[in-house]
Amino acid sequence: MLSIVSTPIGNLGDITLRALETLKKCDAVVCEDTRVTGQLLKLLNLEKKELISCHGYSDPKKVDDLIRRLKDGRHLVLVSDAGTPGISDPGYALVSRARGEGIPIEVIPGPAAFLAALSASGLPINRFVYLGFLPMKKGRQTLLKSFTDEERTIVFYESVHRIGKTLDELAEALKEQPERPVVIARELTKMHEEIVSTTAANLPLVAQSVMKKGEFVVVVGAR
Ligand code: SAM
């Protein structure tokens, strides 16, 4: 059995009862970084649990080994460093192989940063498009320009190193629509959580003032 388990994005209190039960009873936890997941398991008093590192999960030999263990009847839990496995994180290769091999799969849903940002944004979210991280080079400008015609709310991830530049580029791409609402969610569920509602025209100012540390989700209202 393969259990896909979401884990907190910053606040341990967001671990679900099912996630805890599943982590307790499984044979081993497949994770990106054993230090990160080891720390989570320690906080949950599960530090004796076997950890299998499989960052990227794209090495076919590693996935073969995991599939072998699953076929031998072992119960593996798939987690990522934080949030939901497969959401801008590894997981796809293992889950798709397991499904192809007919291995039983269960999902224990929980936190995902883009969902938390959307629900706190105050923007219409019955229809949205999730873009993960924007491409760094090829297709980036075309994608940003396409935002002017997007009729759904847009949500994407950004790192602290690029947030300033990305907000400046977003302002430029939306310069004909200066009133487009933009929400920047920073450090969700953590001590320094901050959710800034602004407009496209104000983005360069926001980029300069508040964004120095942390993890970010950007939500752009529909046209
Ligand atoms: N699997 C994760 C999920 O379900 O949200 C996403 C992993 S992705 C590698 C990491 C990115 O998610 C960060 O760079 C940031 O953009 C966003 N993120 C994760 N945790 C966050 C938080 N607490 N607050 C704001 N953004 C967060």
**Ligands (ions, cofactors included):** S-adenosylmethionine
How widely separated are the two ends? Answer: 44 Å
Shape: elongated
If you consult CATH, what is the topology of the largest domain?
A: Methyltransferase, Cobalt-precorrin-4 Transmethylase, Domain 2
Bin the strand percentage: 15-25%
Poorly predicted sequence stretches spanning 5 or more consecutive residues: none
Task: Kindly state the percentage of residues in helix.
Answer: 25-40%
The radius of gyration computed from the alpha-carbon positions, rounded to a whole number of angstroms, is 19 Å
CATH superfamily of the largest domain: Tetrapyrrole methylase, C-terminal domain
User: How is the biggest beta sheet arranged?
Assistant: 5 strands, parallel
Helix-strand makeup class: alpha/beta
List the helices and strands and how they pair.
Elements: E1 2-5, H1 17-25, E2 28-31, H2 34-43, E3 50-53, H3 60-71, E4 76-78, H4 92-100, E5 105-108, H5 113-121, E6 128-133, H6 140-146, E7 153-158, H7 163-173, E8 181-186, E9 194-199, H8 203-209, E10 216-220
Helix pairs in contact: 3-4, 7-8
Bound molecules: S-adenosylmethionine.
Residues 9-10, 80, 82-84, 87-89, 112-114, 157-159, 185-190, 215-217 line the site of S-adenosylmethionine.
